[in-house]
Request: fold
Amino acid sequence: MRILNKFEKYLVTQMCQVDWHGNLNIPNLLDNYLQGLRIQIKREQNTVELLFETQTVQPDENETTALIDKIGGINQIIISTVNLISLLEKEGYIVLFNSATQIDNEVTFGQGAVNLPFVTYTFPDEKTKNLLIDYTTKQIIPSTELDEYKKNKFLTRDDLKFRKNIRMAWIAILISIVSTISGLYFSVHNTYFKKPSEVYKPYIENIKKELKTNGEFINKLIAVLNIFKIKNI
Reply:
């Protein structure tokens, strides 16, 4: 599982948090980005066309420039959404379900007005186009693991496993240090503290200082371990 970008994390959050009432699909996920735009899919012709709403039949230079910018933006959104759905399905985070017994050849969705002029843009990327045609009529069913993935701040299974291993290694080191210090303390106590002679005072002070230094080290080590705390680990 690769690292997700900001937009992809937003889509995952939407999948997990919004109550879709069984209508979680690509048209609904994309709807907020389709102002003044309709996406028209024709299955038999294997085409995806973006219908951009315009004010006139022949857009002027300013409107044409704005359309070019809008095409670039919506292309990136569609590509990111479709590839994210493909990735999440492959990793087992979602299930795609075709609930319709009969699928229409032509599907159109978006927020473009049907009674205004529009400019047609044919979606160029073959792979993304085929995925969009396939996914558009399917319901997206998130798994509980997708919600856990979001709650764990988008750390993948491998990330969690790595952090768990790191934390366990530090715990083992901590236990080893504590055992060594404890052994040293009792050894010194039995040797010197039971004989409170002035001869042993310098040794005792050095040992106390060493124990204090190690104690500070352990506190710092515990602080480091807290960084690696992950839920359910």
